[in-house]
């Protein structure tokens, strides 16, 4: 997973910059799919751990085009609707995370040879995903059309090209990214991913230690968690038209901070309790339901707000930077959490301190965490007929 995330975070800004300069999302997706197909096929034929590692590195390069797609979504949705669209997009990703593992029910039973290669529970996911990416590649080539958006007078805005006056210099791009409100959004991105992936890494061994759960109970737990978070995403998409991004972000982060304080107190006593204690299970379930339902109210507003306060001319590159920061959290979080599994109160204390610091940053910068009104034009007409891709939004 770390190798996949590493090449994904490094390639995301490159795909984004390409899309900003050419205005083409389609070309970026078609090119990135080649890496996804090649990486997954290499996983299928892998005969050594090094080939498996190489396959994940190659496939990760393909995942970086999520920046191009997020940039295109940001350009082709109104600011009023963008939070709802981002929420719906993330709920679809979560649905994929729920459905994906279900395919293992039949993939693990395969045992035959294809062109001399053994298809079994270890290699089958590789050829299966390669086939899905080939189908996706054909769909993009045949059916996807580049989107243009229209202004208030139905004037078509052409894609950015590398000769146009709309191109931003590197100095202007980085100046835009170093503004206070942008730094806060990126800090939220890293922190949420860092603590979230860390806790997810510990859940399986933690539930085994506290309740004796094995594969089936954990699978049921993750299915329920996925359902809860999808409901939360859909609920957020409905209320986003009435509640500002910064209000949801502040409220969501207050809940997250309180729940990490709750988790610290819980874990201090839970590790000393008798295995399978009812009160431990009840307190654990309360924590999980509240945190899982609250996460979208942190994750979606910061992503939407980030797209609104950064320059539209470099939007895909900006999304690449956000995915880079998110990828760092995704790599470092599990490493940090796993190293402290045998001293969970220390891990929980550091996580609480980190989210508390970010909460203070949000409060201190609350005044600037808002979208400036454009005085000369209204928002472009929204056009969001999109094809999905592998995005960690």
From TrEMBL:
Subcellular location: Membrane
Key words, A-Z: Membrane, Transmembrane, Transmembrane helix
SUPFAM superfamilies hit by this protein: MFS general substrate transporter
Entries under Gene3D superfamilies matching the protein: MFS general substrate transporter like domains
Regions that span the bilayer: 50-73, 85-106, 112-135, 182-199, 219-236, 248-271, 277-300, 321-341, 347-369
Gene Ontology cellular component list: membrane
Membrane topology: Multi-pass membrane protein
Record-annotated Major facilitator superfamily (MFS) profile domain positions: 1-373
InterPro entries named among the record's database cross-references: MFS (IPR011701), MFS_dom (IPR020846), MFS_Domain-Containing_Protein (IPR051068), MFS_trans_sf (IPR036259)
Name recorded for this polypeptide: Major facilitator superfamily (MFS) profile domain-containing protein
Species the sequence originates in: Ciona savignyi
């Amino acid at each position: 997973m770390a190798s996949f995330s590493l090449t994904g975070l490094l390639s995301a800004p490159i795909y984004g910059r390409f899309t900003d300069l050419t205005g083409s999302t389609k070309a970026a997706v078609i090119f990135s799919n080649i890496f996804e197909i090649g990486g997954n096929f290499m996983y299928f034929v892998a005969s050594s751990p090094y080939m498996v590692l190489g396959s994940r590195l190659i496939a990760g390069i393909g995942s970086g085009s999520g920046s191009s797609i997020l940039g295109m979504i940001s350009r082709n949705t109104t600011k009023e609707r963008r939070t709802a669209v981002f929420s719906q997009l993330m709920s679809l990703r979560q649905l994929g995370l729920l459905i994906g593992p279900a395919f293992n029910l039949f993939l693990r039973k395969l045992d035959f040879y294809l062109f001399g290669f053994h298809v079994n529970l270890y290699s089958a996911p590789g050829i299966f995903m390669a086939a899905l990416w080939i189908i996706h590649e054909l769909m993009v080539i045949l059916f996807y059309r580049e989107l243009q958006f229209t202004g208030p007078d139905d004037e078509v805005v052409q894609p950015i090209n590398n000769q146009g006056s709309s191109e931003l210099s590197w100095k202007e791009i980085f100046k835009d990214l170093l503004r206070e409100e942008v730094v806060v959004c990126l800090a939220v991105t890293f922190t949420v991913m860092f603590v979230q992936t860390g806790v997810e890494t510990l859940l399986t061994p933690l539930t085994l230690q506290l309740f004796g759960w094995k594969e089936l109970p954990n699978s049921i737990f993750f299915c329920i968690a996925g359902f809860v978070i999808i409901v939360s995403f859909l609920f957020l998409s409905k209320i986003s038209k009435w509640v500002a991004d910064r209000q949801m972000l502040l409220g969501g982060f207050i809940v997250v901070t309180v729940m990490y304080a709750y988790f610290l107190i819980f874990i201090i006593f839970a590790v000393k309790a008798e295995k399978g204690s009812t009160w431990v299970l009840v307190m654990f379930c309360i924590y999980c339901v509240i945190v899982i339902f609250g996460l979208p109210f942190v994750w979606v507003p910061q992503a939407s707000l980030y797209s609104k306060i950064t320059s539209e001319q470099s939007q895909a590159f900006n999304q690449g930077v956000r995915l880079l920061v998110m990828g760092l959290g995704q790599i470092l979080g599990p490493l940090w959490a796993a190293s402290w599994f045998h001293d969970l109160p220390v891990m929980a204390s550091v996580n609480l301190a980190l989210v508390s610091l970010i909460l203070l940053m949000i409060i201190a910068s609350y005044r600037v965490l808002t979208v400036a009104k454009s005085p000369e034009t209204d928002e472009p007409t929204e056009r969001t007929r999109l094809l999905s891709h592998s995005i960690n939004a």
